[in-house]
Design a protein that fits this description.
123 residues; mainly alpha; elongated
């Protein structure tokens, strides 16, 4: 089953940890080959964290733009709408970023510790 056409919508459905788990498992053989050729496991972890950070930055930009647009739309549609409390979205964003980075670190560390021969046999 080819899920490539559905990859852009994947972060919307299950949440960041499951998407990161899928992406890391998909690249486990690549990480194993890199480690087998002499790359440090910390380099693989850094690569996964770097990619996760870019995904988070893109998601935060798109999410912030959509939420501010929705807030303006609701404010124009509803007359008695109170001023929103900015601390709630900031805390929610902080929790989301923390969960995504911890999940990425744990998954990358697990993928970098796999024996290269075992990972290549599974392919």
């Amino acid at each position: 089953m080819n899920v490539t056409p559905y990859r852009p919508s994947a972060p919307l459905l299950p949440g960041p940890p499951l998407v990161l788990s899928y992406e890391t498992a998909r690249r486990r053989a690549e990480i194993a080959v890199r480690v087998a050729l002499g790359a440090k496991p910390s380099g693989a972890v850094a690569m996964i964290l770097r990619e996760t950070s870019w995904l988070l930055i893109g998601g935060l930009i798109v999410g912030a733009a959509l939420s501010f647009g929705a807030a303006k739309l609701l404010a124009s549609a509803l007359d008695n709408l109170a001023t929103p409390n900015i601390s709630i979205p900031v805390v929610a964003t902080g929790i989301l970023v923390t969960v995504a980075l911890v999940a990425a670190y744990l998954l990358a560390r697990r993928a970098s510790r796999v024996d290269p021969m075992i990972a290549l046999r599974q392919e």
